[in-house]
Automatic annotation (TrEMBL):
Name of the protein in question: Vomeronasal type-1 receptor
Example GO molecular function: pheromone receptor activity
Gene Ontology CC annotation, any one: plasma membrane
Domain G-protein coupled receptors family 1 profile: start-end pairs: 22-292
Bilayer topology: Multi-pass membrane protein
Native species: Seriola lalandi dorsalis
Subcellular location: Cell membrane
Species classification: Eukaryota, Metazoa, Chordata, Craniata, Vertebrata
Keyword Transmembrane: yes
GO biological process, one term: response to pheromone
Claim: Transmembrane helix is one of the keywords in the record: yes
Protein family (similarity comment): Belongs to the G-protein coupled receptor 1 family.
Keywords attached to this entry: Cell membrane, G-protein coupled receptor, Membrane, Pheromone response, Receptor, Transducer, Transmembrane, Transmembrane helix
Length: 312
């Protein structure tokens, strides 16, 4: 095994070690909560769905890349390449859109009762299943190019033009136009939710800042010390900011490398750029459950695990 393959395998292994247990803990916590209370709040359902998408990203791509890098198993034939790249792209983009849905729903949650925005929040909560179905349908359709253009890596010259080298597989487009069109669609699919989620997060932070200033004024005039509500608000704000910051930084690097890949005329002999892209995008799927576990009391609190001791 070459040193490059060893480093590659260790990087994917680190993502697997962090991402698989982390997302599994989040999923189990909310499933236990569902079992205990027979229902989930809309925000909890979004986080549960997000953790499932992140688990697919890390489990399907990083785990299989680790096994292949260390030559423990290799499913990357033509069918394996099509399946892995398709599932990875679908779950990756689904993770991005669900992060936006979570930030948007939290933005609606700060609306005063009786307002139009509060009515919109209730509407979204009521039809959340249709939101999930639409996102799955949208991202599945936009990832269909992986089924058409992904192949097992071959040592010949037929795949040197308009292709992308991802180590064990090639994504080979029939023309320069199809490669650029597919690349632009993927960039747009990432940039749109990034802009919307950033806007939603800024609205939340502005609201929380104004609210904290009002509370400070009331406390200073009445001499009453602070309660626990502001602490909960600050935790919620920090969680939103952390997730959005993770998204902007990691997927910003990912999309920058992707745009560079689109400008290269011929398929690169090394998969380094593609590996870096996959690493940074998978890093979000691995680290976001850590943010959720630290910031969400329903995951790290004792009440979420009481049901586990009562039933097992």
């Amino acid at each position: 095994m070459s040193s490059e393959q060893f480093v590659r395998g260790m990087l994917y292994l680190s993502l697997t070690i962090v991402g698989v247990p982390g997302n599994t803990v989040v999923i189990l916590a909310f499933l236990l909560l569902l079992h205990q209370e027979n229902r989930l709040l809309a925000a909890d359902a979004i986080i549960l769905h997000l953790a499932c998408a992140n688990l697919l990203v890390v489990g399907v791509r990083c785990l299989l890349e680790t096994l292949a890098s260390f030559r423990l198993a290799n499913i990357f034939g033509d069918i394996g390449c099509k399946a892995v790249i398709f599932v990875y792209r679908t779950s990756r983009s689904l993770s991005i859109w669900l992060t936006f849905v979570l930030s948007a729903y939290q933005c609606l949650s700060i609306a005063p009762p009786g307002s139009r925005w509060a009515s919109a929040r209730a509407f979204v909560a009521h039809y959340l299943g249709f939101v999930f179905f639409f996102l799955w349908l949208l991202n599945t359709c936009m990832s269909s190019a992986a089924i058409l253009f992904s192949f097992h890596r071959q040592n010949n010259s037929t795949l040197t033009n308009h292709g992308i080298n991802v180590e064990f597989c090639y994504v080979h487009f029939p023309s320069k136009l199809s490669k650029q069109a597919n690349g632009a669609a993927q960039v747009g699919r990432d940039v749109v939710p990034m802009a919307l989620m950033t806007l939603a997060s800024l609205i939340i932070l502005v609201f929380l800042y104004k609210h904290s200033q009002q509370v400070k004024g009331l406390r200073s005039s009445s001499g009453v010390s602070g309660g626990g509500s502001s602490g909960a608000e600050q935790r919620a704000a920090k969680a939103v900011v952390a997730l959005v910051t993770l998204y902007v930084v990691l997927y910003g690097v990912d999309n920058g490398l992707w745009v560079y890949t689109l400008t290269v005329r011929k398929t690169m002999s090394s998969s380094l750029i593609s590996d870096l892209r996959i690493f940074f995008s998978s890093l979000y799927a691995a680290l976001s459950p850590v943010v959720i576990i630290v910031s969400n009391k329903k995951v790290n609190g004792r009440q979420a695990w009481k049901c586990c001791h009562m039933n097992f």
